[in-house]
Specification:
3 helices, single chain, Immunoglobulin-like, mainly beta, oxidoreductase, metal-binding, disordered N terminus, Cu-oxidase_fam, globular, 490 residues, oxidoreductase activity, copper ion binding, binds copper (II) ion, six-stranded mixed β-sheet
Length: 490
Protein backbone atom coordinates (compact mmCIF):
# COMPACT_ATOMS: atom_id res chain seq x y z
CA UNK A 1 0.00 0.00 0.00
CA UNK A 2 1.21 3.48 -0.79
CA UNK A 3 0.29 6.54 1.12
CA UNK A 4 1.99 8.69 -1.40
CA UNK A 5 1.33 12.22 -2.54
CA UNK A 6 1.31 12.96 1.15
CA UNK A 7 1.71 16.65 0.89
CA UNK A 8 1.55 17.54 4.51
CA UNK A 9 -0.61 20.49 5.13
CA UNK A 10 -0.52 23.08 7.80
CA UNK A 11 -3.30 22.14 10.11
CA UNK A 12 -4.71 23.15 13.41
CA UNK A 13 -7.18 21.87 15.82
CA UNK A 14 -10.13 24.10 15.54
CA UNK A 15 -12.98 21.67 15.86
CA UNK A 16 -13.78 20.93 19.41
CA UNK A 17 -15.52 17.89 20.71
CA UNK A 18 -18.37 18.26 23.08
CA UNK A 19 -19.88 15.80 25.46
CA UNK A 20 -22.74 13.77 24.14
CA UNK A 21 -26.17 14.35 25.60
CA UNK A 22 -26.35 12.14 28.60
CA UNK A 23 -29.98 11.42 28.08
CA UNK A 24 -31.61 12.07 31.45
CA UNK A 25 -35.29 12.63 30.78
CA UNK A 26 -38.37 13.00 32.92
CA UNK A 27 -40.92 10.22 32.74
CA UNK A 28 -43.91 8.75 34.50
CA UNK A 29 -44.95 5.16 35.06
CA UNK A 30 -42.19 2.57 35.39
CA UNK A 31 -38.94 3.81 36.94
CA UNK A 32 -36.77 5.47 34.33
CA UNK A 33 -33.70 3.58 33.15
CA UNK A 34 -30.43 4.90 34.57
CA UNK A 35 -28.85 7.65 32.46
CA UNK A 36 -26.60 6.48 29.67
CA UNK A 37 -22.89 6.73 30.40
CA UNK A 38 -21.39 9.88 28.85
CA UNK A 39 -19.45 9.22 25.65
CA UNK A 40 -16.93 11.94 24.85
CA UNK A 41 -15.64 12.84 21.42
CA UNK A 42 -18.55 13.67 19.13
CA UNK A 43 -21.17 16.42 19.08
CA UNK A 44 -24.39 15.63 20.89
CA UNK A 45 -27.87 15.86 19.38
CA UNK A 46 -31.11 17.16 20.82
CA UNK A 47 -33.53 14.40 21.81
CA UNK A 48 -37.04 15.60 20.95
CA UNK A 49 -38.79 12.75 22.74
CA UNK A 50 -39.37 12.77 26.53
CA UNK A 51 -39.62 8.96 26.63
CA UNK A 52 -36.23 7.77 27.94
CA UNK A 53 -36.42 4.69 25.70
CA UNK A 54 -36.88 6.72 22.50
CA UNK A 55 -34.24 8.84 20.84
CA UNK A 56 -35.99 11.12 18.38
CA UNK A 57 -33.86 13.53 16.42
CA UNK A 58 -33.72 15.84 13.44
CA UNK A 59 -30.90 15.06 11.06
CA UNK A 60 -30.14 17.39 8.17
CA UNK A 61 -27.64 16.77 5.39
CA UNK A 62 -26.35 19.98 3.87
CA UNK A 63 -23.36 21.82 2.51
CA UNK A 64 -21.28 23.36 5.24
CA UNK A 65 -17.87 24.88 5.76
CA UNK A 66 -15.56 23.70 8.51
CA UNK A 67 -12.35 25.47 9.65
CA UNK A 68 -10.15 22.38 9.21
CA UNK A 69 -7.06 24.54 8.63
CA UNK A 70 -6.09 27.87 10.16
CA UNK A 71 -7.67 30.73 8.29
CA UNK A 72 -9.46 28.49 5.81
CA UNK A 73 -12.97 27.18 5.60
CA UNK A 74 -13.17 23.82 3.86
CA UNK A 75 -16.40 23.17 1.97
CA UNK A 76 -17.94 19.88 3.08
CA UNK A 77 -21.23 18.01 3.22
CA UNK A 78 -22.21 17.24 6.79
CA UNK A 79 -25.00 16.01 9.02
CA UNK A 80 -26.26 18.80 11.29
CA UNK A 81 -23.29 20.97 10.23
CA UNK A 82 -20.95 18.76 12.19
CA UNK A 83 -17.93 16.66 11.14
CA UNK A 84 -18.51 13.83 12.00
CA UNK A 85 -22.29 14.03 12.34
CA UNK A 86 -23.62 14.03 15.90
CA UNK A 87 -23.47 10.92 18.06
CA UNK A 88 -26.68 8.90 18.19
CA UNK A 89 -26.64 7.42 21.65
CA UNK A 90 -29.07 4.80 22.92
CA UNK A 91 -29.46 1.63 24.92
CA UNK A 92 -30.13 -1.79 23.42
CA UNK A 93 -33.88 -2.15 22.84
CA UNK A 94 -34.42 1.61 22.49
CA UNK A 95 -36.29 3.07 19.54
CA UNK A 96 -34.53 5.59 17.34
CA UNK A 97 -36.57 7.95 15.17
CA UNK A 98 -34.59 10.09 12.75
CA UNK A 99 -36.43 12.83 10.88
CA UNK A 100 -34.03 13.17 8.00
CA UNK A 101 -34.05 16.15 5.66
CA UNK A 102 -31.92 16.47 2.57
CA UNK A 103 -30.90 20.10 2.10
CA UNK A 104 -28.21 19.25 -0.43
CA UNK A 105 -28.64 19.73 -4.15
CA UNK A 106 -28.17 16.01 -4.81
CA UNK A 107 -30.00 12.85 -3.72
CA UNK A 108 -28.90 10.76 -0.79
CA UNK A 109 -29.92 8.03 1.68
CA UNK A 110 -28.67 7.31 5.21
CA UNK A 111 -27.39 3.82 6.06
CA UNK A 112 -27.09 2.65 9.69
CA UNK A 113 -23.95 0.56 9.37
CA UNK A 114 -24.05 -2.61 11.46
CA UNK A 115 -27.52 -2.23 12.96
CA UNK A 116 -29.58 -5.39 12.41
CA UNK A 117 -32.82 -3.52 11.76
CA UNK A 118 -35.53 -3.96 9.11
CA UNK A 119 -34.29 -3.77 5.53
CA UNK A 120 -36.86 -1.03 4.87
CA UNK A 121 -35.05 1.25 7.34
CA UNK A 122 -31.53 0.22 6.31
CA UNK A 123 -30.94 3.12 3.94
CA UNK A 124 -30.25 0.75 1.09
CA UNK A 125 -30.62 2.57 -2.22
CA UNK A 126 -31.97 -0.68 -3.62
CA UNK A 127 -35.00 -0.73 -1.30
CA UNK A 128 -35.41 2.91 -0.41
CA UNK A 129 -36.09 5.57 -3.01
CA UNK A 130 -33.39 8.23 -2.86
CA UNK A 131 -34.23 11.21 -0.71
CA UNK A 132 -34.30 13.96 -3.32
CA UNK A 133 -33.06 17.49 -2.67
CA UNK A 134 -35.51 19.25 -0.34
CA UNK A 135 -37.25 16.00 0.61
CA UNK A 136 -37.53 14.19 3.92
CA UNK A 137 -37.60 10.60 5.13
CA UNK A 138 -38.25 9.28 8.62
CA UNK A 139 -36.10 6.37 9.72
CA UNK A 140 -37.69 4.51 12.62
CA UNK A 141 -36.18 1.41 14.17
CA UNK A 142 -35.39 -0.41 17.41
CA UNK A 143 -31.70 -1.04 18.07
CA UNK A 144 -31.29 -4.77 18.66
CA UNK A 145 -27.61 -5.08 19.60
CA UNK A 146 -25.25 -3.16 21.88
CA UNK A 147 -22.07 -1.95 20.26
CA UNK A 148 -20.34 0.78 18.32
CA UNK A 149 -21.91 1.54 14.95
CA UNK A 150 -22.02 4.41 12.53
CA UNK A 151 -24.18 6.02 9.91
CA UNK A 152 -23.24 7.30 6.50
CA UNK A 153 -24.48 8.14 3.03
CA UNK A 154 -25.08 5.22 0.70
CA UNK A 155 -25.55 7.16 -2.54
CA UNK A 156 -23.03 8.96 -4.75
CA UNK A 157 -20.81 7.59 -2.09
CA UNK A 158 -17.44 8.29 -3.69
CA UNK A 159 -18.03 12.01 -3.28
CA UNK A 160 -20.57 12.30 -0.45
CA UNK A 161 -18.55 10.08 1.84
CA UNK A 162 -15.29 11.95 1.21
CA UNK A 163 -17.13 15.24 1.80
CA UNK A 164 -18.02 14.16 5.33
CA UNK A 165 -21.45 12.50 5.42
CA UNK A 166 -20.87 10.13 8.33
CA UNK A 167 -21.49 10.03 12.07
CA UNK A 168 -21.25 7.75 15.10
CA UNK A 169 -23.73 5.50 16.89
CA UNK A 170 -23.24 4.04 20.37
CA UNK A 171 -25.68 1.48 21.70
CA UNK A 172 -25.06 0.65 25.33
CA UNK A 173 -25.64 -2.73 26.92
CA UNK A 174 -28.73 -3.10 29.14
CA UNK A 175 -26.37 -3.35 32.09
CA UNK A 176 -23.35 -1.52 30.79
CA UNK A 177 -20.01 -2.29 32.45
CA UNK A 178 -18.77 0.70 34.46
CA UNK A 179 -15.76 2.70 33.32
CA UNK A 180 -14.13 5.87 34.60
CA UNK A 181 -14.83 7.44 31.19
CA UNK A 182 -15.92 6.50 27.68
CA UNK A 183 -14.65 7.99 24.45
CA UNK A 184 -15.39 7.51 20.78
CA UNK A 185 -12.91 8.19 18.00
CA UNK A 186 -13.90 8.27 14.34
CA UNK A 187 -10.93 8.09 11.98
CA UNK A 188 -11.04 9.46 8.45
CA UNK A 189 -8.73 10.62 5.70
CA UNK A 190 -9.37 13.31 3.12
CA UNK A 191 -7.49 14.38 0.05
CA UNK A 192 -7.08 18.11 0.38
CA UNK A 193 -5.74 20.38 -2.37
CA UNK A 194 -3.50 23.43 -2.05
CA UNK A 195 -6.56 25.65 -1.50
CA UNK A 196 -7.48 23.50 1.53
CA UNK A 197 -10.53 22.11 -0.27
CA UNK A 198 -11.49 18.54 -1.14
CA UNK A 199 -9.30 17.66 -4.12
CA UNK A 200 -10.90 16.68 -7.46
CA UNK A 201 -11.97 13.07 -7.93
CA UNK A 202 -10.02 11.07 -10.47
CA UNK A 203 -11.88 8.58 -12.60
CA UNK A 204 -8.99 6.26 -13.43
CA UNK A 205 -5.67 5.03 -12.09
CA UNK A 206 -4.92 4.04 -8.50
CA UNK A 207 -7.81 6.07 -7.12
CA UNK A 208 -10.12 3.58 -8.75
CA UNK A 209 -7.82 0.58 -8.50
CA UNK A 210 -7.25 0.72 -4.76
CA UNK A 211 -9.72 3.44 -3.80
CA UNK A 212 -9.10 7.07 -2.92
CA UNK A 213 -6.47 7.52 -0.23
CA UNK A 214 -6.25 10.89 1.46
CA UNK A 215 -3.27 13.08 2.27
CA UNK A 216 -4.74 14.35 5.53
CA UNK A 217 -5.71 12.22 8.52
CA UNK A 218 -8.60 13.25 10.74
CA UNK A 219 -10.01 12.03 14.02
CA UNK A 220 -13.40 13.30 15.12
CA UNK A 221 -13.26 15.95 12.42
CA UNK A 222 -9.92 17.33 13.56
CA UNK A 223 -6.82 17.25 11.34
CA UNK A 224 -4.17 15.19 13.11
CA UNK A 225 -1.48 14.80 10.43
CA UNK A 226 0.83 17.19 8.69
CA UNK A 227 2.46 20.36 9.89
CA UNK A 228 0.28 21.82 12.62
CA UNK A 229 -1.83 18.68 12.90
CA UNK A 230 -2.46 17.71 16.50
CA UNK A 231 -4.01 14.60 17.99
CA UNK A 232 -7.32 14.75 19.82
CA UNK A 233 -6.35 15.59 23.41
CA UNK A 234 -7.84 14.99 26.84
CA UNK A 235 -6.72 14.20 30.37
CA UNK A 236 -6.88 10.84 32.04
CA UNK A 237 -6.31 10.34 35.77
CA UNK A 238 -3.97 7.65 37.00
CA UNK A 239 -5.95 4.70 38.37
CA UNK A 240 -8.75 5.03 35.81
CA UNK A 241 -10.05 2.46 33.39
CA UNK A 242 -11.62 3.84 30.21
CA UNK A 243 -13.65 2.47 27.31
CA UNK A 244 -12.46 3.66 23.93
CA UNK A 245 -14.52 3.02 20.81
CA UNK A 246 -12.96 3.35 17.38
CA UNK A 247 -14.73 3.64 14.01
CA UNK A 248 -12.75 3.74 10.76
CA UNK A 249 -14.61 5.97 8.29
CA UNK A 250 -11.88 6.25 5.65
CA UNK A 251 -12.74 5.63 2.04
CA UNK A 252 -9.98 3.07 1.38
CA UNK A 253 -7.18 3.48 3.92
CA UNK A 254 -6.68 0.75 6.50
CA UNK A 255 -4.16 0.88 9.31
CA UNK A 256 -3.05 -0.81 12.50
CA UNK A 257 -4.06 0.65 15.85
CA UNK A 258 -1.95 0.52 18.97
CA UNK A 259 -2.12 2.20 22.36
CA UNK A 260 1.03 3.38 24.12
CA UNK A 261 1.34 4.06 27.85
CA UNK A 262 -1.52 1.82 28.90
CA UNK A 263 -2.50 -1.70 29.60
CA UNK A 264 -5.04 -2.10 26.83
CA UNK A 265 -7.37 -4.93 25.89
CA UNK A 266 -9.65 -5.45 22.92
CA UNK A 267 -13.14 -5.82 24.37
CA UNK A 268 -15.44 -5.51 21.35
CA UNK A 269 -15.59 -5.76 17.58
CA UNK A 270 -18.19 -4.59 15.02
CA UNK A 271 -21.02 -6.50 16.69
CA UNK A 272 -20.37 -5.70 20.35
CA UNK A 273 -18.54 -7.16 23.33
CA UNK A 274 -16.34 -10.23 23.02
CA UNK A 275 -16.87 -13.31 25.19
CA UNK A 276 -13.21 -12.94 26.23
CA UNK A 277 -11.25 -9.67 26.00
CA UNK A 278 -7.67 -10.08 24.80
CA UNK A 279 -4.55 -7.94 25.24
CA UNK A 280 -4.06 -5.32 22.55
CA UNK A 281 -0.72 -5.47 20.85
CA UNK A 282 -1.76 -3.95 17.56
CA UNK A 283 -4.86 -4.59 15.55
CA UNK A 284 -5.56 -3.95 11.90
CA UNK A 285 -8.69 -1.94 11.15
CA UNK A 286 -10.22 -1.60 7.70
CA UNK A 287 -12.81 0.89 6.39
CA UNK A 288 -16.17 0.29 8.04
CA UNK A 289 -14.86 -1.75 10.97
CA UNK A 290 -14.99 -0.91 14.69
CA UNK A 291 -13.07 -1.96 17.77
CA UNK A 292 -13.48 -1.15 21.45
CA UNK A 293 -10.65 -1.06 23.94
CA UNK A 294 -10.36 -1.17 27.71
CA UNK A 295 -7.58 1.27 28.60
CA UNK A 296 -5.76 1.54 31.94
CA UNK A 297 -2.80 4.00 32.13
CA UNK A 298 0.46 2.34 33.15
CA UNK A 299 1.61 3.36 36.66
CA UNK A 300 4.61 5.31 35.32
CA UNK A 301 3.07 6.71 32.12
CA UNK A 302 2.80 10.48 31.53
CA UNK A 303 0.51 10.01 28.59
CA UNK A 304 -1.61 7.43 26.88
CA UNK A 305 -1.57 7.62 23.10
CA UNK A 306 -3.72 6.02 20.45
CA UNK A 307 -1.63 5.57 17.33
CA UNK A 308 -2.23 4.52 13.75
CA UNK A 309 0.61 2.63 12.10
CA UNK A 310 0.47 3.45 8.41
CA UNK A 311 2.59 2.33 5.48
CA UNK A 312 3.92 5.40 3.69
CA UNK A 313 6.62 6.11 1.14
CA UNK A 314 9.86 7.56 2.46
CA UNK A 315 12.00 9.99 0.44
CA UNK A 316 13.61 7.04 -1.39
CA UNK A 317 10.22 5.65 -2.34
CA UNK A 318 10.57 2.76 0.07
CA UNK A 319 7.47 1.65 1.87
CA UNK A 320 7.95 2.23 5.58
CA UNK A 321 5.63 2.07 8.54
CA UNK A 322 5.04 5.36 10.27
CA UNK A 323 3.18 6.03 13.51
CA UNK A 324 0.56 8.79 13.55
CA UNK A 325 -0.75 9.94 16.90
CA UNK A 326 -4.52 9.98 16.69
CA UNK A 327 -5.38 10.81 20.28
CA UNK A 328 -3.37 11.68 23.38
CA UNK A 329 -4.49 11.49 26.96
CA UNK A 330 -2.26 13.36 29.37
CA UNK A 331 -2.09 11.49 32.65
CA UNK A 332 -3.13 14.06 35.23
CA UNK A 333 -4.23 13.55 38.81
CA UNK A 334 -4.88 10.26 40.46
CA UNK A 335 -8.01 8.41 41.51
CA UNK A 336 -8.50 5.32 43.58
CA UNK A 337 -7.68 2.30 41.39
CA UNK A 338 -10.84 1.63 39.38
CA UNK A 339 -12.21 -1.87 39.79
CA UNK A 340 -12.14 -4.18 36.79
CA UNK A 341 -15.26 -3.61 34.67
CA UNK A 342 -17.80 -6.39 34.96
CA UNK A 343 -18.59 -7.53 31.45
CA UNK A 344 -21.85 -9.29 30.73
CA UNK A 345 -21.65 -12.93 29.68
CA UNK A 346 -21.45 -13.02 25.89
CA UNK A 347 -21.95 -16.19 23.92
CA UNK A 348 -21.32 -16.19 20.20
CA UNK A 349 -23.06 -18.54 17.77
CA UNK A 350 -21.02 -21.72 17.40
CA UNK A 351 -18.54 -21.89 14.56
CA UNK A 352 -18.06 -25.63 15.09
CA UNK A 353 -21.01 -26.58 12.94
CA UNK A 354 -21.65 -28.30 9.68
CA UNK A 355 -22.26 -25.52 7.22
CA UNK A 356 -22.64 -25.34 3.48
CA UNK A 357 -19.83 -23.35 1.91
CA UNK A 358 -20.51 -20.70 -0.72
CA UNK A 359 -17.84 -18.86 -2.68
CA UNK A 360 -17.87 -15.22 -3.65
CA UNK A 361 -15.08 -14.23 -6.02
CA UNK A 362 -14.14 -10.56 -5.75
CA UNK A 363 -12.55 -9.41 -8.93
CA UNK A 364 -12.06 -6.53 -11.28
CA UNK A 365 -11.18 -5.75 -14.82
CA UNK A 366 -11.79 -3.52 -17.80
CA UNK A 367 -15.03 -3.98 -19.74
CA UNK A 368 -15.72 -1.70 -22.72
CA UNK A 369 -12.89 0.58 -21.60
CA UNK A 370 -14.51 0.97 -18.18
CA UNK A 371 -13.12 -0.42 -14.96
CA UNK A 372 -15.60 -2.81 -13.40
CA UNK A 373 -15.49 -4.59 -10.08
CA UNK A 374 -17.45 -7.81 -9.78
CA UNK A 375 -18.77 -10.42 -7.39
CA UNK A 376 -18.84 -13.85 -9.02
CA UNK A 377 -18.33 -12.16 -12.35
CA UNK A 378 -21.36 -9.90 -11.96
CA UNK A 379 -21.31 -6.12 -11.60
CA UNK A 380 -24.16 -4.15 -10.11
CA UNK A 381 -25.00 -0.84 -11.66
CA UNK A 382 -25.98 1.73 -9.14
CA UNK A 383 -25.60 5.25 -10.41
CA UNK A 384 -29.14 6.50 -10.74
CA UNK A 385 -30.66 3.22 -11.81
CA UNK A 386 -30.22 1.28 -8.56
CA UNK A 387 -30.22 -1.95 -10.46
CA UNK A 388 -28.85 -4.59 -8.18
CA UNK A 389 -27.96 -8.19 -8.74
CA UNK A 390 -29.35 -10.84 -6.42
CA UNK A 391 -26.52 -13.32 -5.88
CA UNK A 392 -27.75 -15.61 -3.10
CA UNK A 393 -30.81 -16.59 -1.12
CA UNK A 394 -30.33 -17.87 2.42
CA UNK A 395 -32.59 -19.55 4.97
CA UNK A 396 -32.67 -17.54 8.18
CA UNK A 397 -30.83 -19.03 11.18
CA UNK A 398 -28.97 -21.64 9.14
CA UNK A 399 -25.19 -21.40 9.40
CA UNK A 400 -23.40 -20.81 6.10
CA UNK A 401 -19.73 -20.41 5.35
CA UNK A 402 -18.71 -17.97 2.67
CA UNK A 403 -15.28 -18.00 1.07
CA UNK A 404 -14.54 -14.45 -0.05
CA UNK A 405 -11.60 -14.48 -2.39
CA UNK A 406 -9.84 -11.55 -3.98
CA UNK A 407 -7.98 -12.79 -7.02
CA UNK A 408 -6.28 -9.52 -7.80
CA UNK A 409 -4.18 -7.11 -5.83
CA UNK A 410 -6.55 -4.55 -4.29
CA UNK A 411 -7.91 -5.36 -0.86
CA UNK A 412 -11.65 -5.30 -0.25
CA UNK A 413 -13.18 -4.46 3.15
CA UNK A 414 -16.34 -6.44 2.47
CA UNK A 415 -19.53 -5.44 4.27
CA UNK A 416 -22.75 -7.42 4.68
CA UNK A 417 -25.76 -5.32 5.66
CA UNK A 418 -28.10 -6.36 8.44
CA UNK A 419 -26.19 -9.48 9.58
CA UNK A 420 -23.28 -10.44 11.77
CA UNK A 421 -20.68 -13.06 10.95
CA UNK A 422 -17.46 -14.45 12.37
CA UNK A 423 -14.13 -14.68 10.56
CA UNK A 424 -12.96 -18.26 10.82
CA UNK A 425 -10.12 -18.72 8.33
CA UNK A 426 -7.82 -17.03 5.89
CA UNK A 427 -6.34 -18.97 3.00
CA UNK A 428 -7.81 -22.08 4.59
CA UNK A 429 -5.96 -21.61 7.89
CA UNK A 430 -7.86 -20.91 11.13
CA UNK A 431 -7.35 -17.36 12.44
CA UNK A 432 -7.72 -15.61 15.77
CA UNK A 433 -10.03 -12.76 14.83
CA UNK A 434 -12.76 -13.27 17.39
CA UNK A 435 -16.06 -11.46 17.67
CA UNK A 436 -19.07 -10.60 15.61
CA UNK A 437 -18.35 -8.61 12.47
CA UNK A 438 -20.21 -6.96 9.67
CA UNK A 439 -17.10 -6.09 7.66
CA UNK A 440 -14.18 -8.38 6.82
CA UNK A 441 -10.94 -7.18 5.32
CA UNK A 442 -10.17 -9.40 2.34
CA UNK A 443 -6.59 -8.54 1.44
CA UNK A 444 -5.36 -8.75 -2.13
CA UNK A 445 -4.92 -12.30 -3.44
CA UNK A 446 -6.40 -13.76 -0.28
CA UNK A 447 -9.39 -15.87 0.68
CA UNK A 448 -11.21 -15.08 3.93
CA UNK A 449 -13.80 -17.52 5.21
CA UNK A 450 -16.66 -16.21 7.30
CA UNK A 451 -19.55 -17.98 8.99
CA UNK A 452 -22.96 -16.37 9.39
CA UNK A 453 -26.32 -17.54 10.67
CA UNK A 454 -28.17 -14.89 8.62
CA UNK A 455 -30.50 -14.18 11.51
CA UNK A 456 -32.13 -11.08 10.07
CA UNK A 457 -34.64 -11.72 7.24
CA UNK A 458 -34.89 -9.29 4.36
CA UNK A 459 -33.11 -8.15 1.26
CA UNK A 460 -29.62 -6.94 2.07
CA UNK A 461 -26.75 -5.34 0.27
CA UNK A 462 -23.33 -6.93 0.26
CA UNK A 463 -20.48 -4.82 -1.06
CA UNK A 464 -16.92 -3.67 -0.81
CA UNK A 465 -16.71 -0.66 1.50
CA UNK A 466 -14.33 1.13 -0.85
CA UNK A 467 -16.76 3.38 -2.67
CA UNK A 468 -14.84 3.28 -5.95
CA UNK A 469 -15.21 -0.50 -5.94
CA UNK A 470 -18.85 -0.68 -4.86
CA UNK A 471 -19.98 2.09 -7.19
CA UNK A 472 -18.21 0.39 -10.08
CA UNK A 473 -19.99 -2.87 -9.53
CA UNK A 474 -18.77 -4.70 -6.41
CA UNK A 475 -22.17 -4.48 -4.81
CA UNK A 476 -24.94 -7.05 -4.85
CA UNK A 477 -27.95 -8.21 -2.87
CA UNK A 478 -28.71 -11.29 -0.88
CA UNK A 479 -32.15 -12.40 0.19
CA UNK A 480 -32.63 -13.89 3.65
CA UNK A 481 -35.94 -15.71 3.95
CA UNK A 482 -38.83 -15.25 1.52
CA UNK A 483 -38.82 -12.07 -0.56
CA UNK A 484 -41.20 -9.25 0.22
CA UNK A 485 -43.31 -8.74 -2.91
CA UNK A 486 -43.93 -5.06 -2.28
CA UNK A 487 -40.32 -4.26 -1.93
CA UNK A 488 -39.41 -3.75 -5.54
CA UNK A 489 -42.37 -1.65 -6.51
CA UNK A 490 -40.16 1.22 -7.59
CU1 LIG B 1 -13.00 -3.26 -2.79
Amino acid sequence: MRWSSCVLFCAAALLSCSDADNGTKPTSGPPPPPPLPTVEGLAGIEDLNPDPTILEVNLVARANTVPLFPGDETRLLNYNDSLPGPLLHARVGDRIIVHFRNEMNESTVVHWHGLRISDKMDGSPMIQNPVLPGETFTYDFVVPDAGTYWYHTHLHQIQQFEYGLYGGIVVHEKEAPAFTAERIFVGDDMRINSANQIAPFLTSGPDIGRGRIGNTLLVNGKVISGEGGEPVTFTIPRGSVERWRFVLATNALSYDLQIRGAEARVIATDGGLLPQPFPLDRVEIAPGQRFEFEVRPLPDADEVALEALILVLDENDNVVEMPFELARGTVEGEIEEAPAPEYPVVELPSTKVDAVTHSWALSGGVVDNEVQFTINGKAAFVGDTHEHVLIETFEPNVPVKIRLSSNVSPAHPFHIHGQFFQIIARNGQPVFEPGLRDTVYVRGAETATILSYFENPGRWMVHCHISEHSEKGMMADIQVGPPDEEEHAH
